[in-house]
Amino acid sequence: MKTTKTHRIALLFNANKIFDRDIISGIAAYLGSTRAAWDLYLEEDFRLRLGDIERWQGDGVIADFDDPAVAEALSRCSVPVVAVGGSYASEEEYPRGVPYVATDNFKLTKLAHDHLIDVGLHRFAMFSLPKAKENRWAQERENAFSALMRSNGMEPEIFRGCETSASSWDEAVQGQIAWLRSLPKPVGIIGVTDARARQLLQACIIAGIEVPEQVALIGIDNDPLVRVLTRIPLSSVIQGAQEMGRTAAHLLEQMLHGVRLPNTRILVPPAGINVFASSQHQPVKHPQVMRARHFIRQYACQGIKTHQVAEHVGVSRSSLEAYFRQELGCSVHDVILRFKLDAAKAGLASAERTIADVALGCGFTSTQYMHLVFKRELGCTPRAYRDRALSASGSV
């Protein structure tokens, strides 16, 4: 019986990045669904080994080429290499002689922009990253945003801010707040990553700027860690990173069997959007309703009651209920419960927390009560919702 040869493959990715982790998950999914036999070399910080990567005694490499140092080091590598990274408008930006699987930066940006249009916004901005070689993908998203704005006869509004560190954090936040206050409202803002959108969301909360009534935010990455780090769940474009990983693995497997694929370019579109409270803009005329909803979004999961919302706004409970009925057609309690439900849905979209932990963290008095709310509002149990969400994301 003929045995399948086992190949030694290096995966050069930064496991601290959700994009890279999803690429790795896609590679694992490919290996699990085929007869390919790979022994994987994968380190937490592979960049410490880049200096002599050309001496790699294995059979192939899949690597994140968004990092210029990786592209440079692998230019000296003699084994088959498949590159993964962001797309570029100019062919000159792509590495020569290697197949390249790209996330489609234009489509990512357009999907975020179209979503902000769909919720009724007419002004838009982007929060990007400082220009740097390792941030070329961010500049491509800026270019896509600028093209979309100009095609509609609008000037692009882009803020890069600064790289944040412990010593410059206060300065960075104050710069973000100053920019936010300068923008005409309401405005929809695209964060070039979820991490960047989370920073801006935090700046809005510090400055007392209502999200999403005045500023609607959407990021790119669909990072579950970011969702649990924000008081207001963040909407995000889902990159097709797992599909990119599967595609890259398939290309490398072909190369290991003698197929030549120089300068192959494959663009993978986004997989969709996870819509949460940060971008669910709904025009509200009454200032007390606007302030109340912003307060609810921040504190609903801490078990606040209607009378506490009224106290925060500075009106009687009966007056606030009347304003809510007039503006939104529902009670204050309905909005609190709706937000707790949205937060629970975001928590269940990851397998990292138990259902009981999600219920407690989202302000439900018990797991049984959350179960009743899910059945009444969504027609399914929390466990069934989680199973569907994980299946749709490819995590199971």
UniProtKB/TrEMBL annotation:
InterPro entries: Homeodomain-like_sf (IPR009057), HTH_AraC (IPR018060), LacI/GalR-like_sensor (IPR046335), Peripla_BP_I (IPR028082), XylR_PBP1 (IPR054031). Keywords: DNA-binding, Transcription, Transcription regulation. Residues 290-388 form the HTH araC/xylS-type domain. GO terms for molecular function: DNA-binding transcription factor activity; transcription cis-regulatory region binding. It comes from the Bacteria. This is Transcriptional regulator, AraC family. It comes from Pseudoduganella namucuonensis. The lineage of its organism: Bacteria, Pseudomonadati, Pseudomonadota, Betaproteobacteria, Burkholderiales.
